[in-house]
Fold this sequence. Notes:
Helix content: 10-25%
Number of strands: 42
CATH class of one domain: Alpha Beta
Strand order of the largest sheet: 35-36-38-37-39-40-41-42
Structural class: alpha+beta
Shape: globular
Distance between the termini: 31 Å
Oligomer: single chain
Low-confidence stretches: 1-15
Largest sheet: 8 strands, mixed
Radius of gyration: 27 Å
Amino acid sequence: MRRAILILLLLFVIAPASRAQSDRLTLERYLEWEDVDDPQISPDGRRIVFTRRWVDKQTDRWQAALWIMDADGSQQRFLVEGRSPRWSPDGTRIAFVADDAEGQPQIFVKWVDLPEPPTQLTRLTEAPGSITWSPDGRMIAFTMNVPVEVRWNVALPKAPEGATWTKPPRLVRRLHYRADRRGFMEEAYTHLFVIPAEGGTPRQLTEGTWHVGPRFDGLPAGATLSWTPDGRTIVFDGFKASADSVDRNYRNAHLYAVDVATRQLRQLTRAPGRWTQPAVSPDGRWVAFTGYAETRQTYHAADLWLMPLDGSTAPRNLTRTLDRDVDNLHWASDGSGVYFTIDDQGMRNVYFANVRGEVRQVTRGVHMLTLSSMSRNGIAVGVRTSYHEPDDVVRFAVDRPDQIERLTAVNDDVLQDVKLGEVEQIWYASRDGTRIQGWIVKPPDFDPSHKYPLILHIHGGPHAMYNVGFNYSFQNFAASGYVVLYTNPRGSTGYGTEFGAAISQAYPGVDHEDLMAGVDAVLARGYIDPDRLFVTGCSGGGVLSSWAIGQTDRFAAAAVRCPVTDWISMAGTTDIPLFTFNWFERPFWEDPSDWLARSPLMLAGKVNTPTLLMTGELDLRTPMSQTEEYYVALKMRGIPVVLLRFNEEYHGTGSRPSNFMRTQAYIMDWFEKKGRIPGVTVEAEE
């Protein structure tokens, strides 16, 4: 009898479900996963082209191609290999980027109603970007890097005939000379070009030691090009200054207008700040754009602004009271105002601001909804996702926004027999009373009378926003028996400038308090086993997970992924040095105290938590050395610690499908065994 009672009690302490169940979202199903992106509706609203991605099991990569369908979602079919599709103004052609026979990206044009293959327009040696049709369909504008040749010639003896000498050293003279997912960068400046839509020689419109397109700490953010209706002028964002000022520019950007015929350039915005995403009105009189004035705050919401193209009056802020990041600008066809999206409290919806600055919400829903393009008759297309619905292409009429129609169903076959975990939104008070939003993902067949292990999953950024979209990783954790808590602590976007900037020059800080209060709130519900609390996160989440285990022993195990652990060494090894310096009031050579005080490495002496470290071998954002320093410190202290160096990964550990699955599997095994891995951290017989 006592044995039967013991068995019954053990059933109430649920172990992670390492046994695969047929109706669970397993890692095997990830191999069949697909995705959609960048839907573009034809100007007449009749057809939609979009990018469809899938897992290539043989090459261990995501592959992509362009598909096309009628506007009601019918006749979905493969169109062509390529990416970044854009319709011509008359809707007869689609320009896109694809690799040529040598693997070099080029611009192609496909006549939609003709069976012939696409026409290759360019023979470029650098990749084109931001392709944009002229209003009459006769030209295509694009951006491209223009390399700068830098030589330092020194006298050397002549090499003997047949000798093989090493290559000369790589010459570095700029602050920004490498980028994550690219590696070392040759010195170059991004400029604006046009090419005839029938093919021909590209003509360069801008030149000099500056960049077309905004940059964030030297990293390209993608230029926005907007033609005036008469086709004479292109308005774009960028930053024109001396070469040294461009190299040391953290995130400022301006708007410019260039005359296509004469190449005459004029600057539209004057106040220092980050001014981006220009959109010229249908009548050519106005330019809408996004941005904020220059600030030392590490985060500021980007407002919607309006100014006359001729610069006769100062820009007007149309969304001053909205206090959310404005994105995806599209003018109404009658020029009455601008449609755009904002992220707000974990959701994304479409809004409209008229030229007088009156703002209204257009779509409503607990979802993440993009606004990718609009037809002349007011049909909008985008991508939508929610708790249990992965990304799919949707459409809606802006005058009937309550009728959002899903057009694709690329993962319905994968999910048709899967039972997903319930997602519950929660609000809780942090330790100083600040209200914090989060979500709980529960295992399928959840029973509140049972005791479950909890994973606290921390987002990166740190200025980013967890949202209500479908999350394969979290659902896979839940399918394996874990409760997952993900929250938006202070520093997150989607809650206004004050909330997002609360960690400016104070990171980590109150965000850690917000996260721990979230764990307390879920524990208070009674269905979490307090002896099986776990924490993980990558990038900014790696910072806060390594910080957490230096502050508390409440977690039974941690998986710290791609972290920053030492701010001083981070500043000299990352591809975002200005971002790093901006977190501190003074450089470390003047006063290292705050740099050290906010480095998780300095708390290594307080860590007692078994820790799994995971970082990509190629990571240039939070380089491997950050993880190595922390690993050695914990190893010297005798803390159970393992370092996994992920092959063929830059920042993050899941860009390759197999590495995504490995990340999930290693984390769950580490948590389930609380770091006691036979043959790894303990003897095999243990």
